[in-house]
Amino acid sequence: MKSFLMTAIVILIAAVSLKAQSPITDSYYEMKDALVLSNTVAAAENARKFIHAINGFEIPGTAAGKSHALTHTLDKLRADGETIAATTNISKQREGFASLSANLFSLLKTIKLSTEPIYQQYCPMKKACWFSNEPAIRNPYYGQAMLTCGNITDTIKP
Question: Which residues 6+ apart lie within 8 Å of 99 measured at CB?
C-alpha cells in the first residue's frame, strides 16, 4: 500500500511538472513549428487553438491594475490569430505571425506564462522576432530555406 501511494505521488508530481507551459504558449509553439515546416493547415489549426486559449485567459489578480492594457493586448493577439487562421497562404500567415509575436512580447513580459525559459529569437532578414521554448534556432519566417537564420535576443526567465 505504501509503495502504491508513493508511486501515485511520483506520477502526480511528474504530470504537474510536464505542464510547464500555458495553453497560450503551447498553441503558439505549435503554430511556430507548423510555420517552420511550411504546414499552412497545421498553422491555421494551431492559430484557432491560440485564439481559444486567448479567449479563455483570465487576467491574474496581481495584474488587475493593468487589466485595460492587458485586455488591449489580448484583443490584438486574438486579431493576429484570426489573420493566421483565416488563410492557408504561407506569406500571409507568416506576416500575421510576425505581428502576433511582437504583440505577445508585452504579455510575456507582464504575466508569467511558463515555468521554463522562453527564448526570444530574431530573424535579421525578416526583421521580426519569435519565441521558442528551446535555444535552437528554427526560423518560422523562412522555414527550410533559412532554417537556422537568426539569434537569441532575450531570455524570459520563469
Answer: 76, 80, 83
